[in-house]
Amino acid sequence: MLTFLALASVVLLGIVPEQSQAIVIYTGWERHALLGSDIRLSCSFFSWRWTSEDVTFSWTYRPDGSRDSISIFHYTGGVAYVDNKGPFRDRLEFVGNPGRRDGSILLKNLEFTDNGTFTCDAKNPPDIVGRPSSVRLLVFEKVPIQAGVITGAIIGVVLGLLVLIVVIYYLMRFLVARRVFSLSVSKHGKKKKEGSQQRQLWTPPPLTCYPLP
């Protein structure tokens, strides 16, 4: 009877579908690029499961000023499909690595009309529940001043922190060396002073003269 119950439990557990868990998708927040340049739009995901052979990636694009999104790319079954009628039909390349949970795409020869929001969705069966992630693309004729200022400020802050760390490091070394030297001099002077006091405290006994018989 116990053997029958054990076998029945194994069969029931085997036919119960595996529960899915949430999947978290990551993209950048906003990207800036120059007119005519290429840009990589990254997309990755976190899942508690091993990367499935049925992993899928999908990209959609919504131009600025539009409410509708169009599908521009889809990866499934180990094959990448690029929309052959959309604005990126000849300018989109899949550069991701699905085995490493990377669904990045490369947009080539950017135009001003490419400004808009790109949304990536990923599925790693049985983990298929997750919120797609979006990144906004802004194409400029030249690097915007604000972006340049922010980049310069970040670099300046980082360099300033490095210089400050180096200064503090050498200052601490100097203070420690000075402290050790002071203690050494103080200890040596104390010993010398104690030796001098001992020599001053010792006096020879007085000579006593006795008359000759």
TrEMBL record:
Family: Belongs to the myelin P0 protein family.
Classification via SUPFAM superfamilies: Immunoglobulin
PROSITE patterns (alphabetical): IG_LIKE
KW Transferase (keyword) present: no
Organism encoding this protein: Amphiprion percula
Lineage: Eukaryota, Metazoa, Chordata, Craniata, Vertebrata
Keywords recorded for this protein, A-Z: Disulfide bond, Glycoprotein, Immunoglobulin domain, Membrane, Signal, Transmembrane, Transmembrane helix
Broad class of where this protein is predominantly found: membrane
Keyword Ribonucleoprotein: no
Stated name of the protein: Myelin protein zero
Record-linked SMART domains: IGv
